[in-house]
Every structure is written in structure tokens, then in C-alpha cells.
Amino acid sequence: MTDLIAGSGVDLGIAQAVITTLATALTIGIAFLVRPGLPTLYWSIAFTLSMLATYGVVAGEITDTEALRRASLGALMGAPAFLWSGFRAAWGLRPHLWAGALLAGGSALALATVNDMSWFTVTYRTVFFAASVFAGLFVLDWARSASRRSDRLLLPLVIVSVAFFVTGVATFVAGFVFPPSGGDDFTLVRLVSSIGMLVYVACALIAVVGPTARDSGLGRPATVSTAWQQFERTASDRLMRAQKTSEPWSVVYLGLDDAADIRQTAGAAAFARLSERLEDEASTVFPAESDVGSPSAGAVVVLVPRGDAAVRDLLRIILERVTLLDLHGAIPIRPTASAGWAPVSVLGYDLDTLVYTGREAARVASGKGGDRWERVGATIVKRLISQSELP
Question: Any stretches that span the bilayer, and where are they (predicted)?
Fold first, then answer.
């Protein structure tokens, strides 16, 4: 989203203005209005800042107002930080909104007040590098979660963010290796950043608007299998192979306690983030060879290739970790979860049976006060039989 338009680049600047205007309209119209919240608000701020700053750059070029052009260039540098804040808010992390405001204001002031061209070149390379750091931070936050890495809509932005960060570092280092001239070398930097902005905006738009359109049911239904269907196929295959050697596997069904109350008081967006954090914690706590899937918001199923003693320890750890989940005040109560443990030694190797009885055991645990686990046994099986016999 960073850009430097040369005096001869008015046409490219106009193209950028068109792209940022379209991105702003789609972000506000689809993302923010359909799913209002802090993430979509921060993304809307990022694209709006990009649009207004690009207008300022083009206006400065056309009217030959150098102060306006430079200040707009500096303001544009804050957009990647606002985007980063939006994704952190969406992932349940502290957003650090001040970073975008500080970078936009500081960069605008610095570029507008530097008169010497050589020093302007150094200043621009510095603020360009600062903006690229937030693209790198976005990639780091994305890489820390398995559920984020599995979201294909984020991949284009991840790739271009890596390129953005590498370019920012290379540009910054080159400013020390080669003496600042403001000549052809700097013109090349301006051209690369101008073209890169178009690609970055397009990828950011996919990452921001795509999930909202997908989750809200806009457009045609997806023809590809869902993540849960993929989990079912993989888990069923692994259980079939394990049955041949009688390996001790289990299914653990985790369900958030008071899910309806949390959704009602905190909102659907906060509940979705809490559900994502629950899945992330399960992926972290359970062994790497486990399979983790989510059949619905607030529920996580784990296929664990471990014996009873190991599963007991893992259940204790995951229930403790759930109580420590922090969404920075978005959830009015301390989150807890209940777990249903369905071992193959009791029920066999059929995945549907294991998930079904595990879910029932989790409900029993929740009915006993929650924040505990229940193992599938004779009591759970009799309960299911009695329910099936009801008219």
C-alpha cells in the first residue's frame, strides 16, 4: 500500500486512486456493513487512508504542490500498520492501533519538512522500511496459527507481504551502501513501490473482503469440501489403518461452556474469534500427529493417537488453557470448556460413533457445571439408548 509517484507518473497515480477507491467501497460495503466490528473498522480505516493519501499525491503532482505530495506520501505509509491491526483484532490479539496513526503522522511530517533531495531520499527509504516492517509482522502473526495458515484467502497477501518486507529491507540497506543521489536509482524505487502498491491493495482486498463474503453466504456456494469434511476423511482413514493394529486412539470433543450466552452478550464476531482460539489451543496442546477439526463454532474435535494415561494429562492441560484465553475484554466472562472423551477401546474405530458419543459426554460434563471432562462409558451409552427410545 506504499507508493511514491514520480512527476511523470500521474497516469499511474490515477490508476492507483481508482483501485484504492474501489477497495475502500468494497471493504466498507461488504466487510464493515455486513460484519461491523473492530477488525473491519481498522481495515476500512486502512483503505480509506490509502484512498485519501493517493488523491493527495495525484493532486500534488497535477498542481505542482510539493508539500501536499510529500505529506500524502508519508500518510500512505501508515496503511499497512492499520491493516495489521485489523488482522490482529480479528485473531483475538492486541491490535496496537496507535502504530498506524503514529507511522502515518510521523511519516507525513518527516517527508513534508525535509527540503534537501538527498535527505528526502534517505527519509523516504526509512519510512518505506518502517511500513514494510508491519507487512513482516503480519506474516509472523499469520504463521503462528494453524487455522490461519489453512485459510487460502490469506495466502496472496502473505506472499506479497513477504516481498514487501524484503523490498523494504533491501531499499533501506541500499541507502547506506550507495550514497543518496535522488537520481535514476531513486526513480526506480518509486516505480517499484508504485507497481507494488497495486498488487498489495488487490491481495489485501481479497484477504479482507473474501472471508466476509464467504462466511456470510454471498455469492455462489463453494464447491470445494469444507475443512470439517476434510477432517472427517482424514480421520476415518487413519482410524481404519489403526484398527488393523489395534492401536489405542481416542476422540476428544471440546465444547465451550455457556456458548449461547457468550454469543449473545459478546456478539458473533467475538464468539467466532474465541472459537478460533479454542481450535488453536487444541492444535498446540495435543500431539503434532493428532488431527484437529471444528464441526461448528464453539466446538473442536481432536483425534488423538495416545493411550489413556496420556489423554488424561492432555485433557487436564487443554481445560486449563481454555480458562486463560484472552480476547482483551471482548468476552464478559471467563471462558471454560467441557470435554467428552471417547476411546476406541470402548466404542471401536468408527469416527461417527466416536464423535457422537464424545459430544454427548461433553454435554454431560457441561451439565455438571462445566470446566471438566467426561469419559464415554456405560452411563453415556445408556443415556443415548434411552434418548433413542423416546417417542
Answer: 12-34, 41-59, 71-90, 97-114, 126-143, 155-179, 191-210
Mean pLDDT in each 10-residue stretch from start to end of the chain (391 residues)?
Answer: 45 76 86 78 91 87 84 88 89 85 91 81 86 92 78 87 89 73 57 74 85 56 61 89 87 89 74 85 91 89 91 92 73 82 87 89 88 83 57 39
For residue 70, which of 109, 22, 31, 122 has the smallest C-alpha distance? 109
Question: CA 58 to CA 11: how far, in whole Å?
Answer: 9
Q: Is the dihedral of CA 374, 377, 383, 388 positive or negative?
A: positive
CA 312 to mean position of chain CA atoms: 31
This prediction has a pTM of 0.58
C-alpha cell at 354: 466416536
Sign of the CA dihedral 131, 133, 139, 142? negative
HSE-up of 59 (CA within 13 Å, CB side)?
A: 10
Helix axes 268-285, 259-266, angle to 10 degrees: 130
How many CA atoms, within 13 angstroms, populate the side-chain half-sphere of residue 99?
A: 21
DSSP 8-state secondary structure symbol assigned to residue 341: E
CA end-to-end distance (rounded Å), the chain: 62
Q: What is the DSSP string of 329-365?
A: TSSSS---EEEEEEEHHHH-S-HHHHHHHHHHHHHHH
